[in-house]
Amino acid sequence: KSDSDTYTCDIGDAQSRAKLVVKEIPVLFKRELRNEEAKEGKQVKLTCELSKPDTPVKWMKGDAVLYASEKYEFKQRGTVAELIIRDVKSIDA
């Protein structure tokens, strides 16, 4: 995408220009989230795999966006994104 721009061929007295538009490949799930069960007080890890490495991921619980905290930890390595939920309680279901 960052290669999108106008390019010029310059021969001194004349120029030729062309515009390059690079269309990004859509990001898809190679492996979707799976349902998990955990005992209260334990931690659980939710994992998904994307088709494109280092794609920004937004984790949500219902309609609420989650943020890193003592409760939630986010990890991302290449195409794999993980959410770790610590000290799970029944309200985390």
From TrEMBL:
Predominant place of localization: cytoplasm
Keywords attached to this entry: Cytoplasm, Disulfide bond, Phosphoprotein
Location(s), subcellular: Cytoplasm
An annotated GO cellular component: cytoplasm
UniProt entry tagged with the keyword Cytoplasm: yes
UniProt-listed Pfam families: I-set
Taxonomic superkingdom: Eukaryota
Domain Ig-like positions: 26-93
Protein name, entry field: OBSCN protein
